[in-house]
Amino acid sequence: xxxxxxxxxxxxxxxxxxxxxxxxxxxxxxxxxxxxxxxxxxxxxxxxxxxxxxxxxxxxxxxxxxxxxxxxxxxxxxxxxxxxxxxxxxxxxxxxxxxxxxxxxxxxxxxxxxxxxxxxxxxxxxxxxxxxxxxxxxxxxxxxxxxxxxxxxxxxxxxxxxxxxxxxxxxxxxxxxxxxxxxxxxxxxxxxxxxxxxxxxxxxxxxxxxxxxxxxxxxxxxxxxxxxxxxxxxxxxxxxxxxxxxxxxxxxxxxxxxxxxxxxxxxxxxxxxxxxxxxxxxxxxxxxxxxxxxxxxxxxxxxxxxxxxxxxxxxxxxxxxxxxxxxxxxxxxxxxxxxxxxxxxxxxxxxxxxxxxxxxxxxxxxxxxxxxxxxxxxxxxxxxxxxxxxxxxxxxxxxxxxxxxxxxxxxxxxxxxxxxxxxxxxxxxxxxxxxxxxxxxxxxxxxxxxxxxxxxxxxxxxxxxxxxxxxxxxxxxxxxxxxxxxxxxxxxxxxxxxxxxxxxxxxxxxxxxxxxxxxxxxxxxxxxxxxxxxxxxxxxxxxxxxxxxxxxxxxxxxxxxxxxxxxxxxxxxxxxxxxxxxxxxxxxxxxxxxxxxxxxxxxxxxxxxxxxxxxxxxxxxxxxxxxxxxxxxxxxxxxxxxxxxxxxxxxxxxxxxxxxxxxxxxxxxxxxxxxxxxxx
Length: 680
Known about the structure:
Elements: H1 6-27, E1 67-69, E2 83-87, E3 102-108, H2 109-112, H3 125-136, E4 140-146, E5 171-174, E6 179-182, H4 187-204, E7 210-214, H5 245-258, E8 263-266, E9 282-289, E10 292-293, E11 298-299, H6 313-319, E12 331-335, H7 357-364, E13 368-370, H8 382-390, E14 395-401, E15 405-406, E16 409-418, E17 430-435, E18 441-446, E19 458-460, E20 473-475, E21 480-487, E22 494-502, E23 529-536, E24 557-560, E25 567-568, E26 573-576, E27 584-587, E28 595-600, E29 606-615, E30 620-626, E31 632-636, E32 646-654, E33 660-665, E34 673-679
Parallel strand pairs: 2-3, 2-13, 3-4, 4-7, 7-8, 8-9, 9-12, 15-23
Antiparallel strand pairs: 1-14, 5-6, 10-11, 14-16, 16-21, 17-18, 17-22, 19-20, 22-23, 24-34, 25-28, 26-27, 28-33, 29-32, 29-34, 30-31, 30-33
Helix pairs in contact: 4-5
């Protein structure tokens, strides 16, 4: 258990009183290990876990599926389930101040357990009212239940001991904080708390209105300490009001059992003697995040190897070997109230009482923080924006893989990377869809894709791991490739935009639900990410670009760049290309060199979709000319590399019959390498 020296207690008082004042003014997956056996306090403190093993690579896209490069852009600051949380203020606009998607609130246990004669009677009205109001603003809630809260919150009671405890549970007075502490070792209390947790989970586990739950219940503010009436009795005359580690472990295990979907967090890695050490679903919340205190100043988040105190949050995580818990569980808490207004002034480092903020975020793998002081931040502050985008997940799609023209069943794939410090923790449904020319989604398909598997691309190493001097970054997550087959048989022929969306379940409750948005330039405010143009053919089955479909339809005509009948000028040359159709491409186009596809079939003539399959590791442009007519300039986005084709579709005016010539060139620069063209 954490112990507080007298100096620590005074500074803790200032921090927590700042939080209480803000509330008062407002009124105005790692493999799971076996759980500890009943009656034990969890694993004993050991040593650092060390650098985690890099996840195994997933599948790669098939070489026959054309690649479409997507542009990157900054993700919005109020992406759901990450960033800052503001205090719940009943009746107030929750979307003022710095952009955010989380709302924070405490609740007194006596507000739910309010029947003096029945500890199993639960009135959830206060919680439901707050959750409904928060959802109406499109936000998710982060919450904690408490029993004792010095001076109350202004809208919730200071003494939240349920009335059904009267006559069954002894009470003690904490004269330092003027609170009443129940006997946390009382069998009656322990049974009542475990029954409450079970009922809490049965009603709210998986509720889309809730993002994160602090275990709470024990100690001042539900923070699992009763300073100065705590376990450290060697240097003071105060008795210990905390429960035994064994009894605290019962509460932690009860939460772990009751909540198998909603993310839960406990205050300290050493809470209940480290009872959560072997519970991979339990995260931690650092409520004094990135603060430095004492003389000389020492950090209360960063480990001792980085100037932190012996009781610092990450030092305790190292002591218990849970510094990599972020892989399976969320890391929350609060920016220490004293520094909230200045926490990011010196980003990426810190100054004075503010510790190295970027290091705090990277080593803790922070997803979210209570930060009432963020109300005063400018939404255009680039330092705060950099920190918020680093927190939690930052998902982007670098390539989509699909045939530009398709009918029947066709395969669609995407490759997603994560530039944040933590994974996305919820199994939100990812769907594909088609938008028509008016922007309406005309059809959609749910996929089995799991965003939780997209791990951060790099992680920062603790100096304690001994893998290099600080900062050392280790390559960790890989861009994850997902694909699925969609059925186009019911879709009318025409030109569409292929789109993708990860649905926030809160959208089923609130029309204002914040959408998960990817870090891509094609991301739309409605949540749909534009993957590129797709033309749907009429009838038939089978994806385009194959060896022919059934049902009497013909695949688009394909013309290889390296074919003997084409005309190459200047430096243009045929080169091997493992990912290209036919294993070859034509490169060194542009700067006077050209490639002409001869004898292209224009069918009955007229405007015809022509798809150019190309490869380029950098953005390039080219001119496309039909039958010696005026050239048309087309921009080509980068592909994964020089051997992974992408595609771009243009509509060209072709003559009837097979005498068409299509020339690709660039008079003033290099053009992309060309794999082939297909003509619908």
